[in-house]
Amino acid sequence: MAGLKIKKGDKVEVLAGKYRGKQGKVLKSFPEDRRIIVEGVNLVKRHARPSQENPQGGIITKEAPIDISNVALICDSCSRTVRVGYNVNAEGAKKRVCRRCGADLD
Ligand SMILES: [Zn+2]
Fold it and tell me: How many whole angstroms from 88 Cα to the centroid of ligand 1?
């Protein structure tokens, strides 16, 4: 299966929708659905049953997954969103690189 160009821990910017322009860290990725959860993006309110973490239950605010096509990776060297390319080293391992400045993204 092809991996996603965006992984957990990456810094991304939202390109479309209500959260357009917002930047955040990828908290979780769902490669099979091509969706990710970005910190502070696509917050939804949910009713929660009382649990150990949340003994009162009630309404909690949580990030919901968004489609990976709605975000772009931010390159630290460029300080802006960039396209991701791949470099294959002598051992055949793929590494993500910034298409703009060539910086290593992994
Ligand atoms: Zn760059």
Answer: 18
| 106 CB-near residues (< 8 Å, 6+ apart) | 95, 96
104 DSSP assignment: B
The whole-model pTM stands at 0.84
| Spacing, Cα 59 to ligand 1 middle (Å) | 40
Q: How does pLDDT run across 28-60, given as a tens digit for each residue?
A: 999 999 999 999 999 999 888 898 888 888 898
Task: Say if residue 36 is exposed, middle or buried (CB neighbours under 10 Å; 0-12, 13-18, 19+).
Answer: buried
CA gap 19, 38 in Å, rounded: 11
Direct distance between the N- and C-terminal alpha carbons of the chain, in angstroms, rounded to an integer: 19
Residue-wise pLDDT for 58-90, tens only, equals: 898 999 999 999 999 999 999 999 999 999 989
> How far is the centre of ligand 1, averaged over its atoms, from the C-alpha of 11 (Å)?
13
